[in-house]
Protein 1
Amino acid sequence: MRTLKAALLGGALLLAAGQARAEGDLFLYNWSNYIPPELLARFEKESGIKVTLDVYDSNETMVAKLQAGAGGYDVVLPSTYMIKPMVAQGLLEEIDAASLPNFKNVKETFRKQPFDPDNAYTAPYLWGTTGYSYDSARVPGGSLPESWAPFFEPPPELDKQVAAMNDEVEVWNAAAYYLGIDKCTADKAEAQKILDLLEAQKPHLAMYQSDGTIDRMAAKEVIMHQQWNGAAHRTKEKLPSVVYVYPKEGLTLWGDNFAVPKGAPHLENAKTFINWMMDPKNIAEASNFAGYNNAIEGSEDFLDPAFKDDPAMSLPEGYEDRLRPTEDCSNESRELRNRVWTRLKS
Amino acid sequence: MRGWTRGRGLLVLPAVLVLLAFTVLPLCIMAYVSVLERGTYGGVEWGRHTLDAYVAFLFERDLDDSLVLNPDYLKIFARSFGLAAFTTALCLTIGLPTALYMATRAPKRRNLLVFLVTIPFWTNLLVRTYAWILLLRNNGLIDKGLHDLGLASGPLDLLYTPFAIMIGLTYTFLPFMVLPVYASLEKLDWRLVEAAMDLGATRVTAFRRVVLPLSLPGVVAGMVLVFVPCLGAYVAPELLGGAKVLMIGNLIQSQFGAARNWPFGAALAFALLAIVLLAMAFYALRFGAAPGEEKGR
């Protein structure tokens, strides 16, 4: 049914694309509410290329549409973990992003990431991290070590005051970093270690919950919460004593990337657009709008001050090696992960 | 007359087509998906068959690759059934008196009451569940209200408990109990009750021997309408229960999401369907004829 629906949508799009397809077009397929309309208008003015925006709400939706053969898109923005599977399925066009003039602006950390070691297919758009935050006014001594330890083995004062995300990937990954295990492990003994850690943590947790983390922290329902950095930033606006932690054992770096679908009708325009977006001023506008950081050197000068001055948003100097990009794990590893999650909650 | 009857047969056609296209066909696809191999990037490998998904429901491979019984999924199923049964009982306890009250009002008043019962359907389930979060959480309306009245000390910790899930489910499904029970009580011939009392029955006896048996079709319908959707409930356990334990609905969702194991998700859904059908069949055989029998006496 889903394929059929995707095919119908794709057909409709092709018709629309067929009518509008001209030299100066760009068909952008992006997450909803993820790029400021004013920025696209400025791109149109500066480049003379007309942008048509279509939006999706999940990687799976976007990929299903491309798999169903919906042509007509020039630029898509898959999340990091989706890149490898898309390349493997032949859904992406090689664009040699590293050769684009503005690629020189990309920060070292965001070049040659494991999912695209030569930047043959992708250039980075916005990114964020999954660490945890705590209310420094309510922890013993007013601060905690920058480690996953207080999260997995909370001090007695924080008993039942800690919330984890209700997300098997994020919880498993955090445990794997803390234990120094590869998050894509397919080893049962290692999975058992992760399960043991999570089962020991569970009685001290208030809940597993990914929604409403900001309100929960701001309403002082819990003292500590596994959180995305953007959410932590907004929590701080309501409760200034909140601190976002980049655990020294590592934390997940997730992000979305510019890529070009195979057979894109306006390949050159796509490259022009991606290059334009790697300009510090332009990408900063996207960051300010979406509330997520970008990978472009020099964009700091154009960021809103509240954004720039918050360590949760601007990665502190020297913390680059703590970031662990998301990966697409093998089916064996996924199955193990799901079994650990199920047993944890059975 | 005959032509009319034949024509009437055609009237069901759209309903039958809709059922075939949107219920039977998807079920068939799901049944087929459950016996396929999982695809590397989600989805399934069409044409490659395996019963792995059904084996995985009961067994897991040990370190030496031998199959051992894995009670995890059964435990999750048992928990969901328990919760659904409790919720159904709670709905019946609240719903039966409510329906009885409604059915004994003047006809005009009844319509207003039915209208009031349906009001919750006007807003989205998610919104209503979030409202319960605001009510139940520490520093929320109930917690704060009881404190201010001096009736409680310290945080009540109502939210993120099985109790909160049950409140949420009961609230959601209560109308599904009230309406069918009301429908069968509304048609009740109250002269039968009068006759019973004339013959010396007390109010309790009249209720037990006359009203209750006659309302049974509505009660059974209500119980089914509450119990079955409760089994697959997803929103309330996730939002109100703190997600510390899994329910069937959440388990199935994760198979189609993060676990990327569609065949297993489909197999779980089918195991659930089979258990529900068995329970219904048992119920029909055991109690199915009872209400009609009572009526005939």
Protein 2
Amino acid sequence: MSAAAPARRLLPRPVREFLVALPFLIPSLFLFGAFVFYPLGKSVYLGFFISNPFRTRQIYVGFDQYRDVLTSSDFATTLVVTGTFTLYTVVPALAIGTFLAIIANQKLPGIVIFRTIFSSTLAASVAISAVFWLVLLHPSLGVLNDGFEAIGLPRVNWLADGGWAVGERATAWDVFAAWFIDPNWALISVSLATVWMNIGLFTIIVLAGLQTIPDELYESARIDGAGRWSEFWHVTLPMLSPTLFFASVVGMIFAFQSFGQIQILTQGGPADASKVLLFSIFQTGFEPPFRVGAASVQALALFVIMLGLTLAQFRLIGGRVFYR
Amino acid sequence: MTAVAGATARKNASRSSGVVRRWLRRLPAYTLLIVCSVILLFPLYVTAVFSLHPLTEFLKEGAPSLWPSFWQWDNYFASGEGVSDTPVGRYLFNSFVMSTVITLGQLITATLSAYAFAFLKFPGRNALFVAFLATMMVPLEVSIIPNFQTMQWLDAHFTEQAWLSWTHIRFIDGFPGLVAPFLATGFGTFLLRQYFMTIPRELLDAAEMDGYGHLRTLIHVVMPLGKGALATLAIFAFLQAWNQYLWPLLVTNDPNMRTVQIGIAAEAANISRINVAFAGTIMAFLPMLLLVVAFQRYLVRGLFGGSVKG
């Protein structure tokens, strides 16, 4: 017994317990305070000010900056591009990932090899998959155009053709029509690299989901004379829907966090055709004229979107974790 | 005798023809699997081939050949022009140091806090746990501006003030700045706590009876039992740290402090060394590929917050 023990007894029990737990929590609490919670408050504060490029003078503008940024046409364009990018990345990656998971879920010798190959793109970073796709899409080195030519398709100006996202269009209908006739190849290029990178993760998630479907369901479906296709529609897909929903939320979170592949492949161009929200935050805040306040407002908008998505993800994961 | 031998031979023949038939039936499935694998790995294949081309292959008209005409391993190893001598070697080293420090940091902070949340009773425990979970809703991407300003501020203090400058700690163009925002993790705390909760209470009581303090219990009882969860966290932390792009781009300007992700992106924009950039890309990818392949079951477990026994 140390001499300090009786002195500690003098403190009320909750306080004592708290003092015991504190050293365990202090490192994390300090770091979270400094790099997570304080920055959120600081962003709100920065949003109230406009400053000159060298941050030597700040002018208080209150909520005006919030209103100006969030109602600007630039912000609207960025949201349209971000939404399209989310659609372009989540839906194909989910479809391909599900397909690969299903064919890798067969009972065959050596199937593990294919499972490993299909999930391997998970290891690629945004920069690495951007370079992998640069060799396919590059204006002079790109091999995909040669392949297109060989099968009689026209060459595509992958990284530099903004399609519908470039230039003025009179009505929303014109934009919608152009969406199909005049593809935004720059955004598609960035999406291709992203989809490829996400396929691995989605395959893993769907494989795990498939393994929770009881074999009896398939057996009884077979007894009822179901073919492969109706087995897929009536057993696999309904049983898989929570997993697919979870995967699509993860995919959306990834889409909103995308930055590197865009910076490497298109730099947000041409003419903002591939400028997603995070890229816009980067450009506004870290490139001249360093509009830190305006960038903070956009960052808060991103935060609100991410908050909604993460809450959805928590509900889904929570269902899995606490089910048992 | 001959009749028996004949019967056996016939039986063998029918068995082997059964095997042939079985493999024939599997053929379409394997064909599909192989075709999908080839398509999926095509971008990786092309980059790998390009990483073995001499530079002249990229300067001629048209796309480079899809088969290494001249296996220029020098792109990886030669002195003077290979990966090991261009800054790419330095980038790999930087990424390794950064990812190792982040992984160790997360293991330490998350183990400590997960221990408190799993085994200690204290006022405000639930509220604090919710606060830890809440950090997962604030990805670094939304707070890059204030965090960058914090780094500038710290860097200025450490370089300008005499009582700090002797430490030579740099938050811009230095490892402290690269790792600082990532040393704590809400996800890791949650993951470890979930696992620690499954450890039988009696073991901890026994440790207490033996006079173990909390720190000793943590190191000698809880951590050995939680090895699987710790490995899961370590792999996630290392993979994420190694693959980061945005934050290292912001806090490094000096080419010597670039991480490999920023480095290969910069090198790939430079046609005069593009084959070495591709070699660097392959070298940045391979360690993570091995990590993912070797520890896949830990990754699966982590993806579902520890709820799936992979």
